[in-house]
Amino acid sequence: MVKPTPVRSLRVAVVGVGYVGLSTAVCVASKYPTIAIDINKTRVSGLNSGVVPIHEKGLQDLLRKGLATRRLSFSSTYEELANAEVIFIAVGTPSTGDGSIDLSQVRASCAAIGEAINPSRTMPLILMKSTVVPGTARTLVKAILERHSDKTCGRDFGLCSNPEFLREGSAIQDTLSPDRVVLGPFDELSNHLARSFYQRFYGRGFKNLLITSPEGAELVKYGSNALLATKVSFINLIAGLCERFPGTDVGEVARGMGMDHRIGPHFLQAGPGFGGSCFPKDVRALVKSVTDSGLDPSMLQSVLEVNESQPNHVVRLAEKAAGSLQGKEIAVLGLAFKAETDDIRESRSIPLIQRLLEIGGKVRVYDPVAMPASKGALASRVVYSSSVSDCIRGADVAIVMTDWRQFKKLKPEYFLKLMKSPVLVDARRIYDPRTFSRKLRYVAVGLGTEEGPA
Ligand code: NAD
Ligand code: UGA
What we know:
Layout: E1 12-15, H1 19-28, E2 34-37, H2 41-48, H3 59-68, E3 72-75, E4 86-89, H4 104-117, E5 125-128, H5 136-149, E6 158-161, H6 171-176, E7 181-185, H7 188-202, E8 209-211, H8 214-242, H9 250-258, H10 279-292, H11 298-322, E9 329-333, H12 349-358, E10 362-366, H13 371-378, E11 383-384, H14 388-392, E12 397-400, H15 405-408, H16 412-418, E13 423-426, H17 433-439, E14 441-444
Parallel strand pairs: 1-2, 1-4, 2-3, 4-5, 5-6, 7-8, 9-10, 9-12, 10-11, 12-13, 13-14
Antiparallel strand pairs: 6-7
Helix pairs in contact: 1-3, 4-5, 8-10, 8-11, 10-11, 11-12
The structure holds nicotinamide-adenine-dinucleotide and uridine-5'-diphosphate-glucuronic acid (UGA).
């Protein structure tokens, strides 16, 4: 029987070097020797030369430090994983056509981890960070790991569901100082190893450690994302009502609601809907899981329906202000699904632009960091601008879709000076309606006007 490794001499491996895996790897490497494994060879060789593949605050700095101290390295093979005492799984779980999650990356990585730890004499702890529906860690992850390693969970290795709650744009800060760590260990050994690891990593004073069943941990993840997404759709529905009452502003309504400590002020910012790699995918997966369990998913379906309708609603706001958009020059400011990231997965800008093109608009786009990532989705159907001024110069309509700081700073005079006919659609509510409506044709999500709704 092998013995648990004393926590002091930890060697860590991270499997999957996307937003979650890379943020985890650079943070963990500030304490422990870390090997990060990804099947994407280009990404691995870039990272070994210090090239950060994603836009994330603080990542470059920690990557540089990790490489310089030789505590961090990247590999496209699993061999070095054999010596690891803690292994994070952070591969992708994208949506499939029916809303369920594609588990092929989880299957492949677990099989490879199992084979790699087969000859190992250590007792590794495996932490399942990828988001998976309740029951997946037990029926799939544990089963594959045991089969391919020829070892037994709870005796030869530890395994916990350990969902990740970081936000893109503040991934490093969220990893170094999380609101909570949720652990769903399969047995006492896994519980002991995981608690020791996290208490050592965050310090003995770290109190926000919650231990649940593995399925409980998986559900904390889905419950959290679905509730946050519900708040966003809820306020977007209220925003639609605000537009029917002149002088009514969803910003004020949300502020008033958020002053109730039971509701709280967060995630009540009306806008073009939620995007990103997780809210849409996770709510869809929860709908599927709820349906498969014989429960009624209609509440969650409504959250998705409101979200799907928001980009078209923004287009209608533009039509309300500018009339028919056919043949008009439309500047779309913002492609990322939110500020401080280059991620365009499920960004609401994409369906908005598709709709604008369908109705005959001529679209130019600008985003401070997400332009390269957008070229696959938008190809040559839009004009890529090199700056905000390049994008809005001579335009008939400008639509703000991402709440980038540099967009927030723009003054009404700037739009007036550069645009052909200054019609501004503030889909993110980043401007003061009083200042802007005095100077140009300003319409916004959740802002009631005399002409009525879009
Ligand atoms: P991602 O798509 O950015 O990265 C996944 C990485 O895994 C890719 O680099 C891919 O090449 C690699 N990979 C695929 N198969 C592999 C294999 N067999 N072996 C090794 N590497 C492999 O994904 P992400 O955004 O980092 O998300 C990862 C998981 O974490 C998902 O389940 C997601 O739902 C969840 N999550 C994401 C976020 C986020 O903000 N992005 C936050 C919390 C949780
Ligand atoms: C979200 C969660 O906040 C994280 O806790 C979670 O780990 C992550 O999903 C995940 O599972 O991947 P993220 O997708 O990075 O993080 O972005 P959020 O800041 O949550 O925003 C999601 C979307 O909702 C964005 O499109 C954002 O613009 C939109 N949103 C958010 C609003 O429209 N209004 C709000 O008030 C808040």
